[in-house]
Amino acid sequence: EAQVTQNPRYLITVTGKKLTVTCSQNMNHEYMSWYRQDPGLGLRQIYYSMNVEVTDKGDVPEGYKVSRKEKRNFPLILESPSPNQTSLYFCASSLFPGTDYEQYFGPGTRLTVT
Amino acid sequence: QQPVQSPQAVILREGEDAVINCSSSKALYSVHWYRQKHGEAPVFLMILLKGGEQKGHEKISASFNEKKQQSSLYLTASQLSYSGTYFCGTGSGAGSYQLTFGKGTKLSVIP
Predict the structure, then answer these.
(1) For B69-97, what is the mean pLDDT?
(2) What range does the domain containing B54 cover?
(3) What is the mean pLDDT of chain A?
(4) pLDDT digits over A63-76, tens only?
(5) Residues 4 to 23 of A: which have CB under 8 A from any B CB?
(6) Nearest chain A alpha carbon to B98
(7) B26 and chain A: CB distance < 8 Å anywhere?
(8) What is the CATH number of the domain that holds B87?
């Protein structure tokens, strides 16, 4: 089944403890992206990747890191999480870079930082 | 800058029609529409491109006014399953890799 998977789905952690949220897609998509969703703010893009080893900042990149060493995986790293990073995170992918193509979203990761 | 969606929320009875609008302050190349049900991931509905091309589900209708930098999503004869939050995402150029989403429109369809 074609899908985007994220792990973990739920995570509660403490301020400053490094964490990684994994994202994987099995559709051979070139483009992958991370969004965060907060009440009343909609979806805001954190980082995106046009292909392996090619990444760029979205609208809200502060406090996050990404890497794209393989086409299928695009992990999101929070080196020192803070409470303002408590949010619902979505990974998405599309066949090619560019806004001509539909994006497929993962199921989401709900992160709470205390 | 995020596109502006209106209305923020709307309640419909089954069978009624609704229009959701998406407006940008920047010139647009593409507009995406997604629907998100509570507790789920956003799901693709439609893409509208500058020049008139559209890709998406046959039962969904939308328009794209390039000059006014606006798009509208038309939901006709609404069903209970249409309930959810609708997001528009805008792309500013053919070479742009970034979609910027609006804050969403919450649609509730009641019997």
Answers:
(1) 90
(2) 4-110
(3) 95
(4) 999 999 999 999 99
(5) none
(6) A99
(7) no
(8) 2.60.40.10
